[in-house]
Amino acid sequence: MRAERQDDIWIVEDNPMYAKTVEQGIINRFQCKTQTFHSIGKLISNIDESNYPRILILDYWMEKGTADRILAYINLLDLPIKTLILSGETDKEIIEHLFNQGIFDYVQKGDDEHIDIAISLKTLLPEHLTQYYPSNRLSGFSHS
Fold first, then answer.
1. Which residues of 23-45 are buried (b: 16+ CB within 10 A; e: fewer)?
2. What is the CATH superfamily name and number for domain 8-132?
3. Are strands 8-12 and 55-58 parallel, antiparallel or unpaired?
4. Would you state the pLDDT for residue 144?
5. 7 within 8 A of 128, measured Cβ to Cβ
6. pLDDT per residue over 81-104, tens digit each?
7. I want to staple 71 with a disulfide (CB 3.0 to 4.6 A). Which of 33, 51, 101, 111 is the partner?
8. Would the pTM count as exceeding 0.90?
9. pLDDT, average across residues 107-124
10. Displacement of CA 72 from its chain's centroid (Å)
11. Do residues 13 and 59 lie in contact, with contact meaning Cβ atoms separated by under 8 Å?
12. Which strands make up the sheet holding 55-58, listed edge to edge?
């Protein structure tokens, strides 16, 4: 198994414009390497025991299925990936099921999801936050 790459974030989102917005926000604020996939199949064909991200940001509802398929695959391979679901799904039973499958966090799509993404990444990437924002604040994010 390869050594964990400390700054890899993969994004799986079937809306290319939305994916680009999320990716740019991460790159601008956390200086991480990112890779984006626009389908479940593309991600599954690129992920295995020797090639995987540190963090996976995953849309729940995709064109050909749900995040359950990817989570099952990650669990089958026993990969140490922190998964953040980014979705408009509001069904509490589905969200609870996702946490039972081992996701790290769930972020509701909406007006302020960039703040919630930053809070999750701040937890997962404290070394990047300290390196780029010595005051240890979420610089670049605001409610206004």
1. bebbeebbebebebbbebeebee
2. Response regulator (3.40.50.2300)
3. parallel
4. 36
5. yes
6. 999 999 888 899 999 999 999 999
7. 101
8. no
9. 73
10. 16
11. yes
12. 33-37, 8-12, 55-58, 82-87, 105-108
Tokens of 72: 């099952």
71 by Cβ neighbours in 10 Å (0-12 / 13-18 / 19+) ranks as: buried
Name 126's Cβ contacts closer than 8 Å, sequence gap at least 6.
Answer: none
* Residue pointed to by tokens 């769930």: 106
- The distance of Cα 20 from the centroid of its chain, to the nearest Å, equals 13
83: tokens are: 């998964």
Q: Is the dihedral of CA 56, 25, 64, 2 positive or negative?
A: negative
Helix (H, G, I), strand (E, B) or coil at 37: strand
Q: Express as a percent the part of the chain with pLDDT over 70.
A: 76
Overall average pLDDT of the 115-121 stretch: 69
Question: Position 92: which residue type?
Answer: K
Model confidence band, residue 25 (pLDDT cutoffs 50, 70, 90): confident
Q: Count the neighbouring beta carbons within 10 Å of the beta carbon of residue 65.
A: 13
